[in-house]
Automatic annotation (TrEMBL):
One family name in Pfam for this protein: ACCA
Top-level division of the source organism's lineage: Bacteria
Matches recorded under Gene3D superfamilies: 2-enoyl-CoA Hydratase, Chain A, domain 1
A GO MF label: acetyl-CoA carboxylase activity
Protein name: Acetyl-coenzyme A carboxylase carboxyl transferase subunit alpha
Gene source species: Spirochaeta africana (strain ATCC 700263 / DSM 8902 / Z-7692)
Cited InterPro entries: Acetyl_CoA_COase_a_su, ClpP/crotonase-like_dom_sf, COA_CT_C
One GO process term, biological-process aspect: malonyl-CoA biosynthetic process
Domain CoA carboxyltransferase C-terminal: 36-283
Name of the coding gene: accA
Pathway assignment: Lipid metabolism; malonyl-CoA biosynthesis; malonyl-CoA from acetyl-CoA: step 1/1
Amino acid sequence: MNDRELHRKLAELKEIAARENIDIRADLSKITDKISGRGEEAEVLDAWKRVTLARHPNRPTALHYIKQMSENYIELHGDRAFGDDPALVGGICTIGGQSFTFLGHQKGANMKENLYRNYGMAHPEGYRKALRLAKQAERFNRPILTLIDTPGAYPGLAAEERGIGEAIARNLRELSVLDVPIICVIIGEGGSGGALGIGIGDHIVMLENSVYSVISPEGCASILLRDSKRSQEAAALLRMTSYDLKSFGIIDSIIPEPMGGAHADPTYMADRLRDEILRVLQNLRTRRPEQLLKERSRRLLNLGVFREDSVPRKSNIFSRFFKAD
């Protein structure tokens, strides 16, 4: 058995463990250390290492997965109001004989492509295009698949002038009441409202080394820790990894990656993602539309925790990073 086959077997073992909610990361770390002979390849990675893997320039993109997973796909363009946004792609594809409407943030593979795709940071017309296609999916009773990979929505002046906040807010409202199954997959970065703009669904999947957070580690370090150099520390405090979010109930399943990240074996990752999408859809298809909406609403309302207590502020987790004025 060669190294690639061995790593695939380990990934399959991790997938079974994740599905059964069994934490075997420490044991897998020992195995991978013995295989590779290098401690830095251990599968128990810290938060910052996962951030760097999620941002790796060779990491497979949304269009890569769609082309690999689907028998055919047709990309659709434009929001019918302003224009088209290359940073947020969408269209119709067939996966395992099942038609889907797909939506996804698209990053580039090189500098030229990244400039064209705006590094996966969508403008308002991107989110309006996504909503147009989602409404079309509902009309034709097609399930929706979203592939999320963005540091956030584009924060520039043009985006503000064209109503980026309104576009994302409208998507949150409308996606929450569509009566077709919605499967959301975080394939790289899931950043802030930019991710949520196509991230409302019935089942949320994360690739193992993807991240999902309300703010980037750099932004958290600058704003909350008051030191932009403490981004690695901020990444750990944000609890933004797939395993953290699974333990909080924010996501539903994790797809393990080969050692070294998804880019180490893109074909294998596309196959595993395809299998997971079809498995989840088969489960969601057993629900009537009204049941689907009820469960989606319950899911959204149960996210997060609110607590009031009399603990002094000095005991707050962030208090040790702030100095009294």
